């Protein structure tokens, strides 16, 4: 029997979890640790399992996805979901204003300007504060009911935070963050699955999965931008105020909403975001301009297709059409062969693009990309342009199919493809292409930090067979170096002292520098805290490694395999003979100087690339996160900082200039000895 005490506890747990979900996902400002949160969730799950009669469709336990469904029933939109008229220029925005004045002469207008999120439009229905149904836009009159999948989106409240009697409908956008999209695609690439072209496709695909459990693992998020209907609550007189109300009810509303008093202000705000949109972790394809007064909206009404009181201003497209001149194959550090399209150079979102990765053979086959094809390129949520699709109508019949070479284009060794991998690899143990990449990695600033060992020099050293493995760097001498092209005695001398200095880099840098698969700067740091020397690490078993927090089975396996390999053993012995230090000097195990610290970077840095800056702080035990919250310790502000800077100021989070950041890094590196 379920007694009142248990019933009360279940309700209390749900309230608590709803509250903390809101703090964590919507406000980005958690109040309890992940551990404490998990404890609440576990208790609730156990009680629901023990007393099934207490289960409800809107319990937070439903966030992880219910049972698979058969299909998506069609639902009719009570109020049609109209689309907006698009504008592309300042003149067209002014024309919109002129039209308003013609419709309602002698009236003043206020505008609300919002970011146009590139996601999937949705409608959500609540009854007495409980989420009961959600659907996609569909054709505007009818859409698909996707309630079970929408429940897995953590920022969509299952229960409103205020008492809201009757029925309400809100509308908004479900989207995928750019970082979430990249991570998802990386995982799919590893598993040999087809890649999503952009975050919007990924979000739409995820909402249409028949198994909500899979949807729950997709990084979906939401912004709500409209209170469409409310049966028993008087709605505010302006759109701006209704957005405030939506926030109070617990919806996630985009923070960059601006109330403008003139069309010039509207235009300025639009051009501001045309420049700044790259700073966001989600895709924005334009701005939405709405008349603020609901009463004016009503009088303006709508055409059969779109409202007269709102328009979209679209940013210039991030797509371009070009031709594939050739497909070449690049060989990476681990021997992975990557096909790369050589393109007829074309401008795209501010830069000229002349090549694009095609990822792997399967991806080429799936999209049926051939040499000579005309293709559509897109910068979709990635700095790297992607080939979205082939324009088949432009085919002449002269296009050539591509197939992966059977032998490595650099060393001629056999190319193999493991069953569970999408990538083909050169297995040549002395492949110069792999060696060059490995040396470049070893020398990088965040690894052994050998300044002056650039790509051109590495090419010469490897091509002339002066350096045949990493350890050979330590036998270089002045005479050999000075004999190379463009290498004076002074720079040769400098390089030698850099190489010498690298011998005493700390253990974590050495581990990272060896280029063990899946071991990044942060992983190397963690390993260096658990093992006092490279020898100790090399003797660790799979189980021992997996027992370390943040080291998963895949990484553990990769480490074990690395140290088993005869060639690697020989390399390490050679490095040791040349005097490379392989353990900590002192016995005491020390915590990383920046352990537990969280960093956010915004704007461009003069002395580091983003990747380097990330690896640098990770090698000191810190973490880099993408958005600013009170949990962040430092926001490093470079040139042209984005909205993150303002957010940091408003939350009182410590900001650092690039110089201050360098000073901080210097001081902690020094304290490490
Ligand atoms: Zn090769």
UniProtKB/TrEMBL annotation:
EC numbers for this chain: 6.5.1.2
InterPro entries: BRCT_dom, BRCT_dom_sf, DisA/LigA_HHH, DNA_ligase, DNA_ligase_AS, DNAligase_adenylation, DNAligase_N, Hlx-hairpin-Hlx_DNA-bd_motif
Alphabetized PROSITE patterns for the sequence: BRCT (PS50172), DNA_LIGASE_N1 (PS01055)
Highest taxon of source: Bacteria
Cofactor field: Mg(2+); Mn(2+)
Catalysed reaction, written as an equation: NAD(+) + (deoxyribonucleotide)n-3'-hydroxyl + 5'-phospho-(deoxyribonucleotide)m = (deoxyribonucleotide)n+m + AMP + beta-nicotinamide D-nucleotide
Residues holding Zn(2+): 408, 411, 431
Residues at the active site: 116 (n6-amp-lysine intermediate)
SMART domains: BRCT (SM00292), HhH1 (SM00278), LIGANc (SM00532)
Function description: DNA ligase that catalyzes the formation of phosphodiester linkages between 5'-phosphoryl and 3'-hydroxyl groups in double-stranded DNA using NAD as a coenzyme and as the energy source for the reaction. It is essential for DNA replication and repair of damaged DNA.
The protein's name in its UniProt record: DNA ligase
Name of the gene encoding the protein in the UniProt record: ligA
